[in-house]
Amino acid sequence: MTATRATKTNKAKQQRAAFLLALEGDAALGATPDERRAMGRRMQGIALAGNVAGALAALWAAFWPSPYVWSILAAAAMPVLAIALQRWGRRFFAFGQAPDGRFALIVMYAAPAAVLAIRAASDIALIDWPMLLPVVAVVAAACGALVAALCPDVRNLAGIGLLALTCALYAYGVIAQADVRLDDSQPTIYQATIMERLVSTGRGHAHTFVLSDWGPDDDKMSGSFGVKPDLFDRFQEGDTICAFVKPGFLRLTWYALDGCPAGQAQ
Question: Which of 50, 170, 173, 254 could form a disulfide with 108 if both were Cys (CB 3.0 to 4.6 A apart)?
Answer without folding.
Answer: 50
